Amino acid sequence: MSAIPGDVDPDRQPPMTVPLRHFLVASAFLPLGVLAGVAAVADFRPGLLSLAHAHLLLVGWVCLTIAGAMTQFVPVWSGVDLHSTRLAALQLPLLAGGLLGFAASLLLTRLALLPVFGAAMLLGFWLFVYNVGRTLARARPFDVTERHFALALGFFVLAPLLGLVLAVDFTHPLLAGGPVTRPGVVAAHATLAVFGAVLTTVLGALYQLGTMFTQTELHGVDEPLRRVEELGFPTGVLLLAGGRLVGSASLARVGGALVALALLSFSIVLARRLWGTEVDRTPMLSRYAVVAAATALWAALALPAWLADPLARASLLGAPGTTHLLLLGVVGFVVLGTVYHVVPFVVWVHRYSDRLGYEPVPMVDDLYDGRVAAADFWSLLVGASLLVADDLLGLPSAASPVGGLLALVGTVLFVANVVGVVREHAPQSLPTVLFGDWAAASEAEPGPVESD
C-alpha cells in the first residue's frame, strides 16, 4: 500500500460545514458521556445511567465522529463525489436528537419513549449507510480501507436494528417465549455495534492513516498479518454475534478467537508502522501508539477469556475488567488522534490552501494549541490507565474517581482545542458551522438604526 497516495482528490470533499458539524456535535457528547461515567463511579445513578453512559459515548461521540469522518474521507480517498450532501446534513439531527431523547428517557426511566427516539437514531444511521454506500459503490476496485468501510456499513445496518428491537421490548415484550432471549439480543447488539460497526471502521481507517502519516509501507510480515485480520475479523464478529444471539457457546468461541487473533495481528502491523517512522511525533501518532499497545494487551487477555466462556456477561467486551481498556485505550485514542488531524486539515484546506505560495500560511499542525494537546493527552492517558489498572488489579478506592476526573479534564481540554481550531481559523463563524444558513442569516441581520 502506498504510504502517501497520489490519487487522493481533495476537490471531491463535501462542503466544510458537513463533516465539521458532525465533529463538533460529537465532541459535545464526549464530556457528557465521561461525566455520566464519573457519576456512576461516585455511585450517583439516576435511572438507567449505565445504558445512557454507553450510548452517549458510543453513539454520541464515536459514531457521530465516524459518520462525519466517512462523509469526508470516502469521497476524498475514493475519488468520487458524495452521493447527497442533503442526506449527510439530515442524518446528524436525527442521530443527535434521537440520542438526546434516548439518553434522557433512560435517565428519567420514561421507557415508553425509547422506541420513538430509537427509531430516529435508526433512520439516521440508515441514511448514513445509504449515502456513504451509494458513494462507495462508485469506487472500483476496493482497496483494504474501502473493503473495511463497506463491511462496517453492513454492521451499521444490523446493530441499530437490534437496538430498536430492545427499545421496543422494554414496554412491549417481543422476545418473551421466542427463539432468542433478551440477554442474547443485548449481547449480539453490543458485539455488532462495538466490534462490527466501530472497530471495523477503525481498522479500515488506520490501514490508510497509519501508513500515510508515518510515511511507511506495509512490508514483510505485515502482509500475512493483514490477511489474517481482513479475513478473520469480520468472520469472527459475525460468528461471535450469532453465537451469542442463539446461545451457542461453540460458535461464539470460534468467533471470539478469530476476533482476538485478528486484532492482535493488526496491533503488530500498527506498532511496526509507528516503530519504522522517521517523521516527528504529532498528537495523532502519539495517540496511535497508545492504541497499538492497548489493542495488543486487550487481545491477549480476551483470547483465553472467550475460549473459556464467550457467553458470560462479564466477558461481553473481552476479558472481565477490560471494558475501559477497549473503549478508552483502543477506540477512544483512535478517535482522539484522528480528530486532531481531520478537523485542522478540513479547516486548513478551506481557509488556507488557496493562499499557499502567495502569502505565509500556517501548517495544519499549527492550527491547534500544542500545549493543550499535550495536556489532554497526559490527562487522558493517566486517567485511562488508573481506570484500567483498577479494573484489572483492584487499586485503592480513590483510584477510579481520580481516573474519571482526569479523563473528564482531558476531554474538556480536547474539546476546547478542537473548537478553538474552528473558531479561530474556519472561514465561517462557529455558529454558522453548527447551524448553517439560519445562523448566517441571523448574523447578517442589521441592527437597529438609531435616529438623530
Automatic annotation (TrEMBL):
TM regions (residue ranges): 20-42, 54-75, 95-128, 149-168, 188-210, 257-275, 287-307, 327-349, 370-389, 401-422
Keywords: Membrane, Transmembrane, Transmembrane helix
Superkingdom of origin: Archaea
Residues of the signal peptide: none
Matching InterPro entries: Cyt_c_oxase-like_su1_sf
Protein name (database record): Uncharacterized protein involved in response to NO
Species, as recorded: Halolamina pelagica
